[in-house]
Design a protein that fits this description.
The protein is mainly alpha-helical. The protein has one domain (about 5-95). The chain contains three helices and no strands. The chain starts with a helix and ends with a helix.
């Protein structure tokens, strides 16, 4: 367990964490599965050198994007065409 993770768990408990990973039914994802997911992200990741005027468009439901740090000025614009709800998805599958 990373030091930062341990400190946050000690201070906040799992329920008070700013973000966490769960299966669609709300059950926690096993630590071993998270390790495998992180390894897959590392293997499949694409890194490129940003240039002025570069633009990135992505669909957060189809693409997992990096959290590598960025230095310099940037503008972030967000648009949501159709809000996504996991609850609606689960209901439509089980209905």
């Amino acid at each position: 367990m990373k030091k930062t993770q341990k400190v946050l768990l000690d201070l906040c408990g799992e329920e008070g964490l700013p973000r966490n990973a769960y299966y669609g039914d709300g059950e926690p994802i096993e630590k071993e599965a998270l390790v495998n997911i992180r390894e897959a992200f590392q293997v499949e990741g694409v890194v490129f050198q940003w240039k002025p005027q570069d633009l990135l468009l992505l669909d957060n439901m189809l693409v997992s994007h990096s959290r590598n740090s960025y230095k310099g000025e940037r503008k972030i614009l967000v648009s949501m065409a159709n809000p996504y709800s996991t609850a609606a998805k689960v209901r439509s599958v089980t209905a």
